[in-house]
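re: ur question from yesterday

yeah so i grabbed the chain u mentioned. its 377 aa long if i counted rite. heres the sequnce exactly as i have it in my notes:
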Amino acid sequence: MIRMFGAALAAALLASTAMAAPLEPGEYKVGFISEVTGPIAFAGNSFLKGAQLAAEEINASAYMGAGAKIAVADKDAGSDAARSIQNANQFIADRSVVAITCCILSPVANSVKPITMNARIPLVIHGATLAGLPAPPLVYSMTVLPGPKDVATAVAVAKATQPKNVVYFLAADNDAFKGRMGAAQKALEEMGVKTAGTVSVLTADTDFTAAATQAMGLKPDAILLYTTQAPAVGIVAALRQRGYAGTIVGNDVLSPDSVFKKLGAVVAGIPFPISFSPDLAKTETALKFVAAYKGKYNASPDIYSAQGYEAIWFIAQGLKAAGGKPTREALAEALAAQREVEHNVYGGEPISGGQIDTTDTLIVAWSADGKVVPWTK
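ran it thru and got these structure tokens back, copy pasting raw so excuse formatting
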């Protein structure tokens, strides 16, 4: 028995020593399934730029150790599931790729997930918002789940404005938004706020005149948006053009600078939840991220670039923790042991069950002069 215990202890010490060894010098590739073309290229470009900036900072600071570099190898899939799967298989076949990060749309993430799990390669989801996607030790999500933030925002705005009935706009082809809307609707109905109706749109729609007319015909006290960015922008514009002056409640897709550039003061005052905003950045890490992003791209970062940035830092943290010359499975186990993303722009980024989170719900709005400010009634 003593011999067995001694052998087990020796094995544990050996494993601990191996884990503590510095990461071997060399280049460690992350396969980035990008979405820089297609219907949500506006967001896809931000995710990729954030990831590329992270890799530059990691390498310049020697964060992973002397001579250890991380590289972002991107392949565009245009938000298409078949192309995303093809890209994932190509990354899997390249043994220099130690992890994959992908996917803004939840159905696409669900298509890629079983491919990577079967290949035993870590997958870090940087954009998809569907709950339940993480599956440690192989699958992680860097997306702060918007559902709870949506509910908190809807409840706060309802308490402040006291609507009797509301209309919901829903992206009918997006399961994640269906879940987000359902959770907010349940919370509001429990408060006594009636549902006047739901107006369904599609992610690829471009004309929202009829949809706005339909919503206004229901005479709601407030309108809540559960769509991706392009429809949300079109809906806000159509509602205001047709004279709707009531409360509109948005979601995090209204946060990028591009939204204000398109809508200007039309979007001012519309409340939405956000996890990160360059206008509200306070921590040293966040301020440095904003400055570096502006210096490199001559533009302000947004929540999408922040999530792409965090995905690469998280993978680098796992590589550093794994040490030695880690296999894909060793990296997966090292990622599973992390309880917080050390280098983060949120002021805290805990991880539980492979899902990251933040500690606060920031309810904000665009000001008339194009600043993201705390929302007030």
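noticed a couple things. The two ends are 70 Å apart (CA to CA). also The CA atoms of residues 23 and 323 lie 4 Å apart.
anyway ttyl
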